[in-house]
Amino acid sequence: MKTIKRRSFLTNVAITSALGAVVLPSEAKSKKKTFIHHVYFWLKNPSSEADRSKLIEGLTALSKVPTIRFHHIGLPASTNRSVIERSYSVSWMLFFDNLAEEEIYQTHPIHLKFIADYSHLWEKVTVFDSEEV
Question: What span is annotated as the signal peptide, if there is one (predicted)?
């Protein structure tokens, strides 16, 4: 029977334990359900460059909420097919690690300040939320 030194034994136990705690990428993906929050704004004055710029300024400040993983501010693209909606003024797409992170965003002081400071600019907002399959 082979004798194992105490130090080698403890090192092997530590390595084995650490490897057991490692999550493989495919397992991590299955546990993490990305949450997308996509907002479309229709301005009260859709032809006003100043109002659109002001809203974009507000969205840029709003992007500082720490639970946001990625954000995109967009304008209607020049594409033109029957299935494409182009009547909105500005879109705001956010990626979160999960629904809980998005819920933190909803009540975050930066988000509440954004609504208070900029809601006078829009007449309509439509939101599409989705979770990763």
Answer: none
